Amino acid sequence: MTERKNIAIMGAGLVGSLLSLYLAKRGHKVDLYERRPDLRKTSVDGGRSINLALSDRGWRALKGIGIEEDVRKVAIPMYGRMMHDEQGNLTYQPYGKEGQAIYSVSRGGLNMALMNLSEPNPDITYHFGRQAMDVNLHSNEVQLRNIETGSVETVQPDLLFGADGAFSVVRGAMQKTERYDYQQSYLEYGYKELTIPATADGGWVIEKNALHIWPRGNYMMIALPNFDGSFTCTLFFPYEGERSFASIKSEEDLLAFFREVFPDAVPLMPDLAQEYFSHPVGSLVTIKCFPWSHKGKSLLIGDACHAVVPFYGQGMNAGFEDITVLDQMLDTFDGEDWEELFHRFERTRKPNADAIADLAVMNFIEMRDKVADPRFLLRKKIEARISEQYPGKWLTLYTMVTFSELPYSYALETGKVQDRIMKQVMKHIKSVDDYNKPEVQQLIERELLKKEKLS
Ligand SMILES: Cc1cc2nc3c(=O)[nH]c(=O)nc-3n(C[C@H](O)[C@H](O)[C@H](O)COP(=O)(O)OP(=O)(O)OC[C@H]3O[C@@H](n4cnc5c(N)ncnc54)[C@H](O)[C@@H]3O)c2cc1C
Ligand SMILES: NC(=O)C1=CN([C@@H]2O[C@H](COP(=O)(O)OP(=O)(O)OC[C@H]3O[C@@H](n4cnc5c(N)ncnc54)[C@H](OP(=O)(O)O)[C@@H]3O)[C@@H](O)[C@H]2O)C=CC1
Ligand SMILES: Nc1ccccc1C(=O)C[C@H](N)C(=O)O
């Protein structure tokens, strides 16, 4: 056990709340400062990103504090993608092997469950309605504004964690330090959340155990199931242009557009117009920065140091994996040199954070465009056959990212090699049966041998 520290975490979102449990388990005293009110006492603000896809990396971190089973009870498995074309016809693509799924969970529900776990723990204290305004990295002092009274207080922890999300104030302070690398890039797309309500008896009106996609080339809508029978739909749409948020000005524009491009969804969305014109458009940003720590006294974690666009469903999972990795490093930490520990953490995580950022942008193109192409779906089937035939030698990129704990950077690199092989293989493929052709089998064997030599 290392020396007990007074730790302050800025932000009690998903990552901050989970981190507090891991740090308290090691005997530290943890205070969390969250600018929003206590979720458990206020009605949920119809806010953004109501549900999230949780996958293996996230599950592992939840397991580490013994909450996995409880969350599973309220998580809905999605075994694959269900594509809706412009006539309302459906096609299906499984995510992995039979039984493998990503899980739709409620953001608020998960955050509250994490907060509740700390309730009996005297070492964890939540301070709601406290907004970090300014951080002095040299003295480790944070100025916090009390949202209700407007008064400002200062705290000075031994260690400061910035888990305050994509627009982190703690990172803002680091950005002002010498030779700090920072990069942000916004997509020319925004997102808007809409609802498909439950049936009168609380059932699901479309397939419950799938992630639904309406791929339309340069834009798309998706839907993830909620536990109460509803679906949260997200329209990812250009800000400007002929078909864009800017071009939909009236209810008539909206309904004409939706009836043309999402005809099977419209009858399922009774509140479409009201929701469309009252819900905000969210922006989509990738943030890369380095370093993530300052002098062994402060450390960024989660979206604060690696916000990614949501298309792989990995942002929270990556943030949870940060905690798993940090916790593993704490296993062998002698409690002396926090600066070295934080350096080791940021050096280990940075290449993986960069990789998932790039993978997430790539998955947008796959989801909005490629999944509508029968050749692409055929290619996925062929790849699944290769993976079945060579289980130890070929994991699909999606499996490496979603159903494994292999580093994201390894997944990205291996995915590129496999993509090149698949392009060659597909030259010989017109149907699934062609997989058994001798020239295809020989080509795969040859390429796998080369791949092994490379790794
Ligand atoms: C539309 C959308 C869909 C997504 N879907 C998925 C998905 O399916 N799967 C997935 O894994 N990830 C998904 N993500 C990403 C995921 O939401 C984030 O990666 C995750 O929420 C990051 O958690 P965090 O705790 O680091 O940050 P946050 O969840 O943003 O938490 C930060 C907390 O800090 C608080 N805060 C901010 N500033 C201050 C301040 N100055 N002082 C005090 N408190 C402050 C905030 O109120 C918030 O509670 C999605 C994101 C979006 C936008
Ligand atoms: N990677 C991405 O593309 C995005 C990721 N996220 C992440 O999703 C999670 C949940 O998001 P949610 O809670 O709905 O967050 P919100 O979108 O509600 O944002 C929370 C606060 O961040 C500030 N903010 C929002 N958008 C911007 C912007 N474009 N530029 C500057 N500040 C902004 C606003 O603060 P104020 O009111 O003080 O201006 C806002 O109230 C968080 O992890 C967030 O980090 C959120 C949006 C995009
Ligand atoms: N949760 C999300 C939120 C927004 C956009 C996509 C997702 C996904 O999870 C996509 C899924 N991983 C897929 O590849 O089909």
Give an overview of the whole structure.
Belongs to the aromatic-ring hydroxylase family. KMO subfamily. InterPro entries: FAD-bd (IPR002938), FAD/NAD-bd_sf (IPR036188), Kynurenine_monooxygenase (IPR027545). This is Kynurenine 3-monooxygenase. It comes from Pontibacter actiniarum. Its EC number is 1.14.13.9. This protein is of the alpha/beta class. The mean pLDDT is 96. Helix 1 runs parallel beside helix 4 (107-118) and helix 8 (315-331) packs antiparallel against helix 9. The longest helix is centred in the C-terminal third of the chain and has 31 residues, at 338-368. The strands form four sheets. A seven-stranded mixed sheet has the order 6-5-14-15-16-13-17, sandwiched between helices. The chain has a six-stranded mixed sheet with strand order 8-2-1-12-19-18, with helices on both faces. It folds into three domains: 6-74 and 103-183 and 285-363, FAD/NAD(P)-binding domain; 184-283, no CATH class; 373-454, no CATH class. The protein is globular. It has helices at residues 14-25, 56-63, 68-73, 107-118, 169-175, 251-261, 272-278, 315-331, 338-368, 374-389, 397-402, 408-426, 438-454; strands spanning 6-10, 29-34, 51-54, 76-78, 80-84, 90-94, 102-106, 124-128, 130-136, 141-146, 152-155, 159-162, 181-196, 210-215, 220-225, 231-238, 282-290, 293-294, 298-300. It is 37% helix and 24% strand. Bound molecules: flavin-adenine dinucleotide, NADPH dihydro-nicotinamide-adenine-dinucleotide phosphate (NDP) and (2S)-2-amino-4-(2-aminophenyl)-4-oxobutanoic acid (KYN). (2S)-2-amino-4-(2-aminophenyl)-4-oxobutanoic acid binds at residues 53, 81, 102, 211, 222, 234, 310-313, 363, 367.
